[in-house]
Design brief:
Layout lengths: L11 E4 L1 H4 L10 H6 L1 H7 L3 E4 L3 E2 L11 E5 L6 H13 L3 E6 L9 H8 L11 E2 L20 E4 L4 E4 L14 H16 L4 E4 L2 H5 L14 H13 L4 E4 L8 H5 L8 E3 L1 H13 L3 H9 L8 E5 L6 E2 L5 H11 L6 E2 L3 E2 L3 H4 L4 H13 L3 E5 L55 H5 L5 H13 L2 H5 L1 E4 L7 E8 L2 E8 L5 E5 L9 E4 L6 E2 L6 E5 L4 E6 L4 H4 L4
Parallel strand pairs: 1-2, 1-16, 2-5, 5-9, 9-10, 10-11, 11-12, 12-16
Antiparallel strand pairs: 3-4, 6-8, 7-8, 13-15, 14-15, 17-18, 18-19, 19-24, 20-23, 21-22, 21-24
């Protein structure tokens, strides 16, 4: 069982086939291009890839509008290309997770076309209909300011259909047992082709009851157990990584009291408090978020992230906290989105300051859970605010200073490569940073290796150590007789802190595994450490013979 919990000490890398590399020369990334970059990912040290949607789709929402769950979009290649990719990843010790987009389909999906064409169609009940427009049709939109309603009239069906997202994405009636059976079939299909699990998109909406008469949706948590049971029957160590922006009081409903539902969930609570800490140098809300999300089943895990392919959602912060984050990282209106978030990439949010970027990622790697990093962040890629909505942060990967950043030989990539300004591909690319020992890319590679060599973070229990300074976060992890202690200074100035590791005699010696600046305690057992502006320290507690002292249980 222990060996099956590979996700406990994983490093997950999120990418889109469309934006990673184009081998066919048509301006669109494809699986052949991705295959050619597997050695890069292996060298970076990632242990799993989260692949954004690549199934057949009209492409109105970056593939999140699926029109065929059992096929690859022809722009990216074929099912054969996909299997070659999963096989190549497996050879390099990299697992593959794919997006499972089952809350809705594209309106072009044959299921919906059959459903709207004939009220007696077996697919009619696979979607959610109403003869009259419900009174609450102007509520519950996922994209306020862009989306006007959640119910749209279909002329052919002569009825309204429900869509929590855009009107071209009709919701599946996931309460229907036939729909649930089809979802299991979809998962089984891709498991057979080499994937190790799924990132389940919009999980709370999938399990919620839907209908014109539903004013307060009820979450059907047993559905999550059904998904989990099926997957582990097909492949014992397969997982589901759930996207669920929920309150801490509901965590166990998704994990299951016995850890029998979702294996991993994204920790949105910590993510939002983290950006408030970056903006204010106040770690108190972050500490509260960490403590609130600390309880979880032994087999469950949090997925920690900085930025992803969506906007930075700040909806869980107080109005005052949200204002602080907006002022620091998204002060202009075109940097904001959906009245709740920021649509920028991490590097421009932090002003391109490598000290802050390194501190942010060092902190991510030291938080309790599994780190998830986004393609391009390892080189500090920027964004193109001239592109609509979230597309501004979904530009092609920048591989070199060659035309189109080495992404494609085509002069017209499907999404424009960033060419101008300090984040243009001429200045920010893999090739240049690979040759620079002090680059962000090489730093990230070293940090990933260091994180993988500290399994206490992924597996162990954490304690917050008092430093007497709200702008400095000190975390101590323990597991199997070993401990690590990690400090981060969120201040823009050097800071001195004194602290007691609170771990007995071993705590008198702290060995810095990042840069060698070790520390010995004074006669009272306290360490005094000076941290640079945005500085950090990773310490092994007691010495570097920890592997010899590690217990088997």
């Amino acid at each position: 069982m222990i060996n099956d919990l590979w996700y406990k000490n994983a490093v997950i890398y999120c990418l889109s086939v469309e934006t990673f590399m184009d081998a066919n020369g048509d301006g669109v990334g494809d699986f052949q291009g991705l295959m050619r970059r597997l050695d890069y990912l292996s060298g970076l040290g990632v242990t799993a890839i989260w692949l954004m949607p690549f199934q057949a789709s009209p492409g109105r929402d970056d593939g999140y509008d699926v029109s065929d769950y059992y096929n690859v979009d022809p722009r990216y290649g074929s099912l054969g290309d996909f299997v070659e990719f999963t096989h190549g990843a497996k050879q390099r010790g990299i697992r593959v997770l794919i997006d499972l987009v089952i809350n809705h389909t594209s309106k072009d999906h044959p299921w919906f076309q059959a459903a709207r064409s004939d009220p007696r169609s077996p697919y009619r009940d696979w979607y959610v209909w109403s003869e009259k427009k419900p009174d609450n049709a102007d509520q519950g939109m996922v994209f306020p300011g862009v989306q006007k309603t959640t119910w749209t009239y279909d002329d052919k069906a002569k009825a309204y259909y429900f869509h929590r997202f855009y009107d071209h994405q009709p919701d599946l009636n996931t309460s229907n047992p036939e729909v649930q059976a089809e979802i299991l079939k979809i998962m089984g299909f891709w498991i057979q082709l080499g994937v190790s699990g799924f990132r389940m998109d919009a999980t709370p909406f999938i399990i919620a009851t839907k209908g014109a008469d539903v004013t307060k949706p009820v979450e059907q948590f047993d559905m999550l157990r059904k998904f989990r049971e099926f997957l582990q029957w097909r492949l014992g160590d397969s997982i589901i990584l759930a996207e669920a922006n929920i309150l801490p009081k509901d965590n166990f409903e998704y994990f299951g009291d016995d850890g029998d539902r979702m294996q991993i969930m994204f920790n949105f609570q910590v993510n939002q408090a983290l950006f408030y800490a970056f903006a204010s140098a106040d770690t108190r809300p972050l500490k509260k978020a960490m403590e609130a999300t600390k309880p979880r089943p032994a087999t469950a895990q949090w997925g920690l992230f900085l930025r992803n392919h969506d906007e930075l959602d700040l909806g869980r912060l107080t109005e005052k906290q949200r204002g602080v984050v907006f002022a620091a990282f998204g002060p202009e209106k075109d940097m904001q989105l959906y009245d709740r978030g920021i649509r920028r990439r991490l590097a421009p949010m932090l002003g391109g300051d490598h000290r802050r970027i390194e501190m942010a990622y060092s902190l991510l790697f030291s938080l309790p859970g599994t780190p998830v990093i986004r393609y391009g962040d390892e080189i500090g890629m920027g964004d193109d605010l001239g592109l609509p909505e979230r597309n501004c942060a979904r530009t092609p990967m920048q591989w070199s200073s060659e035309p189109e950043g080495g992404f494609t030989k085509s002069e017209k990539p499907i999404s424009p490569v960033i060419k101008d300004g300090p984040y243009g591909f001429q200045h920010v690319n893999v090739a240049e940073q690979r040759r620079d020992p002090n680059s962000l890319l090489n730093w990230t590679e070293r940090m990933i290796r260091m994180r993988k060599e500290a399994p206490e973070i992924g597996w162990g229990d954490f304690s917050v150590i008092d430093t007497g300074n709200d702008g400095v976060l000190a975390l101590r992890y323990e597991r199997r007789g070993n401990s690590v202690l990690i400090l981060h200074n969120l201040h823009a100035r050097p800071t001195e802190v004194s602290f007691d590791p609170d771990i007995g005699e071993d705590g008198r010696l702290l060995i810095d595994i990042a840069d060698g600046a070790s520390s010995k305690a004074d006669e009272n057992g306290f360490h005094t450490v000076v941290l640079d502006a945005y500085g950090y320290r990773w310490y092994r507690v007691g010495g570097l013979d920890y592997l010899l002292r590690r217990t088997e249980i």
